[in-house]
Design goal:
The chain starts with a helix and ends with a helix. The chain has helices at 3-17, 39-48, 75-78, 150-160, 226-241, and strands at residues 21-26, 29-34, 56-64, 110-118, 123-130, 138-140, 163-165, 194-199, 204-209. It is 23% helix and 23% strand. By secondary structure, it is α/β, with parallel strands linked by helices. The chain has a domain at 3-65 and 106-176: NADH:ubiquinone oxidoreductase Nqo5 subunit (Beta Polymerase, domain 2).
Length: 242
């Protein structure tokens, strides 16, 4: 959205909802954080009221903030010696939420994030709602307001273990019925807990402990790469010339 439309939306959200929302703007995108207790009332107003008209829920996903702000690689100090010498031992799965190495400005571990679109007013909004309980993450279901979110909430439940209270048919959608755990949680092993194979003697698929060893993967950090910076500069010059 343009800066004018963005500022207008922020002002309308603040005027309508007050302290029920915390609104921020980053890279031209407006994000509103709402408490779970206020979610359904706020969502209904965003859909129905004239200043918003968010008739479309485009996407919904779960988020696990366990590794937020953490890096596995000390790239600044040791990148000249090779990334393999920069492992800090703070990878996901090596600590719990309570014992995470660095404090971050995130109130709870799990959140549900959804993106809204107003076709009528040509505006977009991201809404984030944190789960109050890290051990049993629960937020209200939005299926009664935007029915199309049904499968998105099932996906979030399957992959993150977030329970959407009031969902008409909350069950797994991607993993097997007997799957244990939620694979997008940051403490879930990258290699998984079990592997499957077909046993010709038993004539069925059987589950076994994984037979591969975990290893450190590529750096999960954002770097200022000179080549990428040069490519961006050349692309900008190309657009200006044409």
């Amino acid at each position: 959205m343009s800066d004018t439309k963005t500022n207008s939306l922020v002002e309308r959200l603040a005027a309508r909802f007050g302290d029920k929302l915390t609104v921020s703007v980053s890279h031209g995108a407006v994000t509103a954080v709402v408490e779970a207790a206020n979610l359904l009332a706020v969502a209904t107003a965003l859909r129905d009221e004239a200043g918003f008209r968010f008739s479309e829920l485009v996407d919904l996903c779960g988020v696990d903030y366990l590794g937020y702000g953490q890096t596995e690689w000390d790239t600044t100090d040791v990148s000249g010696n090779g990334f393999s010498r920069g492992v800090e031992g703070e990878a996901l799965g090596r600590f719990t939420w309570a014992d995470r190495p660095r404090e971050v400005s995130i109130p709870n571990r799990y959140a549900s994030v959804f993106h809204l679109l107003s076709i009528e007013l040509n505006q977009r909004l991201r809404v984030r709602v944190f789960c109050a309980d890290n051990d049993l993450p629960v937020v209200p279901s939005l299926t009664g307001i935007w029915p199309g979110v049904n499968w998105f909430e099932r996906e979030s439940f399957d992959l993150f273990g977030i329970i959407y209270e009031g969902h008409p048919d909350l069950r797994r959608i991607l993993t097997d019925y007997g799957f244990v755990g939620h694979p997008f949680r940051k403490d879930f092993p990258l290699i998984g807990n079990v592997e499957v194979r077909y046993d010709p003697e038993q004539k069925r698929v059987i589950y076994e402990p994984v037979s591969i060893e975990p290893r450190v993967l590529v750096p999960r950090v954002i770097r200022d790469d000179a080549d990428l910076m040069q490519a961006k500069a050349e692309a900008a010059d190309h657009w200006r010339e044409n």
